[in-house]
Amino acid sequence: MTISDNGFSTARRLILKGAGAVALIGLGNIPFGFASAFAAANDKYPEEAFKAKSDADAIKSLYGKTAEPSDKVKLDAPEIAENGTVVPISVSTTLADVTSISFLVSENPNALAASYKIPAGTLPSVANRLKMAKTSNVIAIVEAGGKLYSATKEVKVTVGGCGG
Amino acid sequence: MASTIRVRATSSGDTTEVQALIQHPMDSGFVKDAKGDTIPPHFIQELTFEYDGKSVFVADWGAGVSKDPYVKFSFKGGKKGDDLKISWVDNKGATDTTTAKIQ
Fold first, then answer.
1. Percent with pLDDT over 70 in chain A
2. Do A116 and B89 touch (CB under 8 A)?
């Protein structure tokens, strides 16, 4: 081992520098950006709520509170859906400070179908198309001013044939 | 490769209405194919819309959303010629993104 002027082994310094460099490269290999982005996306996606079977469980999982029926939530859904795989359903509301709108189909294997985040500046109105396994209640949930409001409508689903 | 996202964003007054139609099987995982094997779940989980660098709408979807999903919403703001960015990610980690001009 060579000994430099200040008494510190050159070889030891080299090894330590090398070890440090390898450690830094090791850190660089950790996909921090990817991992955190992936985690962030999963944090936002309410996986558990979508796995819930009943609408009560799904609402509890998604919002942590219960909804009160409100006539300020206008749920538009057909009386009879001829094709249960594509049922056009929409909701709009006159409530203020809406932050979220969700749709549930009670008789579906997993009641929660869709949940929408409504940032400030976006109108509290959504139209979408949902699957319905069979005749069921469709529930629209609106989160406004930190409270939950709901509207429910029964949609009949015909099996085969042309309506009736 | 053509995008799976078709979008029409129209600005009228101070509001922009957005309609999006996306090509995606949205398989629920409950349906069996002709051979009797269950088709595994394959559906869009998150769909985001961004205008001027800010999120204007986020859809969290489950398998209960129809195949080739459609959604319509409106937001305040948006001018003709401005960009609207749409992206989705599904349960298999696949993604697609597109930018549309507000008409």
1. 71
2. no
**Portion 1-40 of A in contact with B at CB < 8 A:** none
Q: What pLDDT digit, counting tens, does each position of A29-52 carry?
A: 444 444 434 433 434 899 999 999
Mean of all residue pLDDT scores within chain A: 83
Looking at the complex, report in whole angstroms how far the Cα of residue A5 sits from the nearest Cα belonging to chain B.
58
Sequence-separated (6 or more) residues with CB below 8 Å from residue A17: none
ipTM of the complex: 0.96
CB-based contact A124:A102 (threshold 8 Å): no
Q: How far apart are CA A162 and CA A160, in angstroms?
A: 7
Of A85, A115, A126, the CB nearest to B66: A85
Domains of chain A in start order, with CATH, are 53-157 (2.60.40.2470)
Q: Where are chain B's structural domains?
A: 5-101
**Pairwise CB contact (< 8 Å): B64 & A46:** no
**Model's pTM, two decimal places?**
0.82
Fold of B5-101: Immunoglobulin-like (2.60.40)
What is the distance between the terminal CA atoms of chain A, rounded to a whole angstrom?
94
The predicted pLDDT at position A40 comes to 39
Say what the alpha-carbon torsion angle A32, A51, B50, B1 is, to the nearest 10 degrees. 80
Range 15-74 of B in CB contact (< 8 A) with A: 15, 26, 28, 30, 45-46, 54-67, 69-74
Over 90: is that where the pLDDT of B15 sits? yes
Which residue on chain B is closest to A52 by alpha carbon?
B62
Lowest mean pLDDT among A10-14, A116-120, A159-163, B39-43: A159-163
